[in-house]
Design a protein that fits this description.
InterPro entries: Ankyrin_rpt, Ankyrin_rpt-contain_sf, Multifunctional_regulatory. Keywords: ANK repeat, Repeat. The chain has 17 helices and no strands. With 371 residues, the protein is mostly helical. The chain has a domain of 95 residues: Serine Threonine Protein Phosphatase 5, Tetratricopeptide repeat (Alpha Horseshoe), CATH 1.25.40. The longest helix is centred in the N-terminal third of the chain and has 50 residues. The termini are far apart.
């Protein structure tokens, strides 16, 4: 009985989702009748020019879904996103073929009748995610669009296929600086992968591009003074990755990479809870990166500006992370333990929430300064 009840509940949820999509589609069509069609086509054409191909936005899903820049030109395209494309019985077989790279089946299905861009795109992202290069190539040549979310699916592919897949997209108009929604680019997501980082930089990736800080325009360009790539490399990447970005022109003044390197915590740790104790390996592991940043001009007392409440100074961030060795290193480089951030100074926070060792280090530093 429980199984039947669960099946009934799932059936009702799917039906409700279908009704919701129908309402949204009707609302969108009504908006087009009030002048939205021209705006949608203009945004689609702009994106198409960036991709090197025309991508008219005729029936994209509204309300900021991941699919709202996929051209939907057929009356049944919306069903592809409900999980129950009843009007397109070949879709399940098509998905499986794209996921497993079964080119014969893909060719057979596409040869039966014309398929819409939305149909093709759903197969393309499966082929990209599974590393099926031949299938992805065939779908692109058949007209599958490259949307703002398409390239990110490659990050799920087998490691040895990723560069080949990105190269395939470049043959169809995509570039390493092509933005996703709100201007987000892929470089900050791949800086911990040395091979991909080398390929992206060799293919013109700009290390100063990043997602819009204010999310001002879903279809807009990236910010050109971002530090997202360098900050991510500083907190999770290698010394070599940081140097590669700096050599490619990454500007430290765009952000605060030293601050982020100083505050790396163990996965899942909450620095606000106090007594965070990273392993010695994790604690020491960021120091070479911090040294690299300082050698290239980073200020150990730089104040990190943000709209959110944060420790603001590298040494306060390091204390909150429980990173004793990083705190010692920052002090050796002239960091001021009495600079007050939103959570107080390094000395104050250590007194309230730090370990006994952290308290001793900062107490000794204060005594030495007073002496």
């Amino acid at each position: 009985m429980a199984s039947q009840e669960e099946q009934s509940r799932q059936q009702m949820m799917l039906q409700a989702r279908e009704r919701q999509l129908q309402v949204l589609a009707a609302r969108q069509l009504q908006q087009r009748g009030m002048g939205m069609n021209q705006m949608g086509n203009q945004m689609g054409n702009q994106m198409g020019q960036q991709m090197g191909q025309a991508q008219p936005r005729t029936m994209g899903l509204p309300m900021g879904t991941p699919y709202d820049d996929i051209p939907m030109t057929g009356p049944n395209d919306l069903e592809l996103f409900t999980g129950r494309p009843l009007s397109q019985p070949d879709f399940a077989s098509f998905q499986a073929a794209c996921r497993h790279g079964n080119l014969t089946t893909i060719e057979s299905i596409l040869g039966t009748e014309p398929c819409t861009p939305a149909f093709l795109h759903q197969g393309l992202i499966l082929a990209l995610g599974s590393g099926s290069i031949d299938a992805a190539r065939y779908l692109l040549e058949a007209g599958a669009p490259i949307t703002r979310q398409t390239p990110g699916h490659i990050l799920s592919a087998p490691e040895y296929q990723k560069i080949h897949l990105f190269e395939l997209l470049t043959q169809h108009g995509w570039t390493t600086n092509t933005p996703g929604f709100y201007g987000a680019v892929l470089l900050p997501k791949i800086v911990t992968n040395d091979a991909l980082l080398d390929w992206f930089l060799a293919n013109g990736a700009d290390p100063n591009l990043g997602a819009q800080r204010d999310n001002r325009d879903r279809y807009g360009a990236p910010d050109t003074d971002s530090c997202a790539a360098l900050e991510t490399a500083a907190s999770h990447g290698s010394v070599e990755a940081v140097q590669k970005l700096l050599s490619a022109g990454a500007q430290m003044g765009n952000g605060a990479p030293l601050y982020f390197a100083a505050g790396v915590c163990p996965p899942g740790a909450n620095p606000h809870a106090g007594l965070v104790t990273p392993s010695r390996e994790l604690d020491l592991g960021r120091i070479p990166v911090m040294a690299q940043l300082v050698e290239n001009g980073a200020d150990v007392n730089q104040k990190f500006q943000s709209r959110h409440m944060n420790p603001q100074y590298p040494i306060v961030n390091a204390v909150m992370a429980g990173a004793v060795e990083r705190v010692k290193w920052l002090l050796s480089q002239g960091a001021d333990p009495n600079l007050r951030g939103a959570f107080g100074s390094a000395v104050q926070y250590a007194q309230k929430m730090g370990s006994d060792e952290m308290k001793r280090i900062l107490r000794a530093e204060n005594m030495a300064n007073e002496g």
